[in-house]
């Protein structure tokens, strides 16, 4: 069918592309309708705001993952990196001891600096070590995880200063004009991500690198720099996610961020980014993260799924959502 | 609970001190300890108590050496046990990840004549173990259930399950059994993986789904902390209390301070590894009979007895 379109030209093809980009949003709408049918409480503003707020960590991390994956890489270390960053941030705050905004700013700075450094390490090992990113980040995943367990001595790292905890808490729980701050945070991160990926030469380099490394190299794309930068962006995104995560429970444990890497990668793929690289869709990624959290929410709200089968139904819904997307842009 | 362990250890230590003083003779014994790595608050507590008790016992019994090895999963624990036995240990104290997997490796260990102590999760073939120190999971569920019957008497309760395991199953079935015939009703059950973040999310969803919840059985202190944060956010006044479990120091502190939402806790002490070590060491040094099964009670911790469950230095 697509072959015959050759001559009718660009107009139709562009429409085709738009449908692809739209399909995660269509899957989202289908899920929301399904949720509303299952339980009327699903559509209350407080429930929907809770769910979207909860998806903020994965959404922010997944925006970074969109860069890495679009560039043909992979980062499995993000969950452990988030736990380590959260742990170090809380320890920094505890050691500084103050309960004022200055202390908080220093702690935040430490978090971003550490996560960017972790990303830089991943990037440098991948590029200069010429090792598969899967192996590199699997290694750093273990390293970061062990470090946080070691820092916590197997227990919990908790914010000790009560004033600081209360000062910081609103960053997760408060709203500006009715929109919770974490949602604003991930919209801003996604907007900046989209700007970088779609409107800068760096963004085009990332996509070129992901679709064909050799062609990109011969076209003069600075491969090593671009690739390393995608991992640094991933690191910074993890740092930002941690800034929103810490005020929620005020603590980091050895189980913090467990399996977040899989959720982030799933969100990226649901959003329409190709796992083999070459296509990146930032807004799709954000929708993917929201879809993941919605599915979990619908499972708890439904009365007819036994708690033993939640995982199976969740998996099936995600696969069906992907099939719906596929059929939307195939059967157009 | 820890107090009892201290008593056992100290008493055994005194006996040993007297004995060794009298005979001025040193008996060399090596005890290997294989436990899960500190990947979760409770196992973090196990590691802490294993190391603390090891230090204490080595001081009490001259000639005793305790080697503690931690493993991140069941398969590496089997390897760790191989390593330990090749170091010629006289006794092996094991808190298995999964008792099914470890039954055969432990049978091999036993065949070599090593003294075997199993903690918390019993082996499939009980003839292998010389000493079994058991945490009491059914009791854990019963004590919690009884607390709801006695204190809530009537109302709707939501339940948080841990990770799908035998431990979790035993706790939840016995909790529900304890509620039978009372006015307390379980209106929802979900897994939250003994994880704070997951419990926070599930509690938010419970709050959206159920307009009236009278109390929460979080069944674990980590999960209880996530639950509390979700309740605070929703500003819901209908929930009278949250019951956790295990005995995390932050939660014991709340019970001690008389927190209205956390009036009690149910113990499942990670220090049971210390009980096992103390009894095993006593087997070698005191000559008193020690073989057998020791079942620790799951105790209800309230304001009155919270002090003896509070270990500010433990990571858990």
What are the salient characteristics of this protein?
heterodimer; A: 332 residues; mainly alpha; ABC transporter involved in vitamin B12 uptake, BtuC; two-stranded antiparallel ribbon; 4 strands; globular; B: alpha/beta; Rossmann fold; 2 domains; six-stranded parallel beta sheet; four-stranded parallel beta sheet; 10 helices
Can you describe what's shown?
The complex is a heterodimer of chains A (332) and B (316). With 332 residues, chain A is mainly α. Chain A has helices at 10-38, 45-54, 56-70, 78-96, 101-128, 133-152, 162-168, 170-173, 181-199, 201-211, 213-218, 223-249, 260-270, 282-301, 310-330; strands at 157-158, 175-176, 179-180, 251-252. Chain A has a single domain (40-301), classed as Orthogonal Bundle (ABC transporter involved in vitamin B12 uptake, BtuC). Chain A has a two-stranded antiparallel sheet with strand order 1-4. In chain A, strands 2-3 form a two-stranded antiparallel ribbon. In chain A, a hairpin with a 2-residue loop joins strand 2 and strand 3 (179-180). With 316 residues, chain B is α/β, with parallel strands linked by helices. Chain B folds into 2 domains: 2-135 and 269-297, Response regulator (Rossmann fold, 3-Layer(aba) Sandwich); 137-266, Rossmann fold (3-Layer(aba) Sandwich), CATH 3.40.50. In chain B, helix 1 runs parallel beside helix 10 (272-285). Chain B is elongated and about 65 Å long. Chain B starts with a helix and ends in a 15-residue tail after the last strand. In chain B, 53% of the residues are buried. The model of chain B is unreliable at 16-24 (pLDDT under 50). The chains are: A mainly alpha (332), B alpha/beta (316). Chains A and B meet through helix 2 and helix 14 of A and helix 2, strand 7, helix 7 and helix 8 of B.
